[in-house]
């Protein structure tokens, strides 16, 4: 489990900017204006974590029990709440109701892992789902241009083997993209620019943590 310092936010879209050397950086823009709304401690819960909230919310959209839990924590109501496990030392740095300072979590040029929910594409065929080439388009081909072809043998084993690439549900699954680089940190606006594409559609929520497969992922370079 990745327990490196991280944050979660909402994907705004993509943009680009020019570096000092004139090269272009294509970046994903993430709004990370999150607030600490709770904590998990080893003494009470058996593990250490920060509970983060994002987006303003109204009381009419919550049950009384949820509102009471926010009030006991002394934190404002938030539309989206997520729990990020972390080291006890990291969790102790932040108080309830405080906004996470980006400069204390990330550094420009640091590698991060981004996790999000991909766009759902419904029930699709093998060409779109698995990038099959399809059948030939000439020589009398009829109604088999985008088919998957044979899915098994006749006598042995006499059945379709499991895990064959076939049509089915595509997308709408949790995906992690590793080793992306932070291009720019805009602390005043609460925005992160991450080089490359990240999972999910616009306005989708993503989790950003220090990379687990890079030396400077869990700490500042």
Give a written overview of the molecule:
The structure is a single chain. This protein has 221 residues and is mainly beta. It has two domains: 104 residues, Elongation Factor Tu (Ef-tu), domain 3 (Beta Barrel), CATH 2.40.30.10; 65 residues, Double Stranded RNA Binding Domain (2-Layer Sandwich), CATH 3.30.160. The chain has four helices and eleven strands, in the order βββαβαβαββαββββ. The strands form three sheets. The chain has a six-stranded antiparallel barrel with strand order 1-2-10-9-6-11. The longest helix has 10 residues. It is globular. The two termini are 22 Å apart. The mean pLDDT is 90.
Features:
single chain, 221 residues, mainly beta, Elongation Factor Tu (Ef-tu), domain 3, Double Stranded RNA Binding Domain, 2 domains, 6-stranded antiparallel β-barrel, 3-stranded antiparallel β-sheet, 4 helices
Q: What spatial order of strands do you see in the largest sheet?
A: 1-2-10-9-6-11
Number of domains: 2
Relative helix content: 10-25%
Report the principal-axis shape: globular
Q: How many strand units?
A: 11
Q: What's the CATH architecture name of the largest domain?
A: Beta Barrel
By CATH reckoning, the class of the largest domain would read Mainly Beta
Task: Please trace the helix and strand order, writing H or E for each element.
Answer: EEEHEHEHEEHEEEE
CATH topology of the largest domain: Elongation Factor Tu (Ef-tu), domain 3
Terminal Cα separation, in Å?
Answer: 22 Å
Indicate the mean pLDDT.
90
Which regions have little confidence, pLDDT < 50, spanning 5+ residues? none
Q: What integer value in Å does the Rg equal?
A: 23 Å
The portion of residues forming beta strands comes to 35-45%
């Amino acid at each position: 489990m990745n327990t490196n310092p991280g944050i979660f936010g909402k994907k705004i879209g993509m943009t680009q900017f020019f570096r000092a050397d004139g090269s272009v950086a294509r970046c994903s823009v993430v709004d990370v204006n999150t607030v600490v709304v709770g904590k998990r401690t080893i003494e009470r819960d058996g593990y250490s974590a920060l509970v983060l909230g994002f987006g303003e919310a109204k009381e009419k959209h919550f049950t009384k029990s949820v509102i009471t839990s926010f009030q006991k924590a002394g934190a404002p109501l938030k539309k989206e709440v997520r729990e990020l496990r972390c080291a006890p030392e990291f969790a102790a740095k932040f108080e309830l109701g405080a906004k996470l300072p980006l400069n204390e979590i990330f550094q420009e040029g640091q590698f991060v892992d981004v996790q999000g929910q991909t766009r759902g594409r419904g029930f699709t065929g093998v060409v779109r789902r698995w990038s099959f080439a399809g059948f030939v388009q000439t020589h009398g081909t009829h109604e088999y241009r985008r088919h998957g072809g044979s899915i098994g043998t006749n006598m042995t084993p006499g059945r379709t083997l499991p895990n064959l690439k076939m049509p089915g549900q595509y997308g709408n699954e949790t995906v992690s993209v590793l080793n992306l680089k932070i291009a720019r940190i805009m602390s005043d606006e609460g925005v992160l620019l991450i080089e490359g594409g990240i999972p999910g559609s616009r306005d989708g929520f993503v989790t950003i943590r220090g990379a687990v497969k890079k030396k400077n992922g869990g700490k500042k370079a």
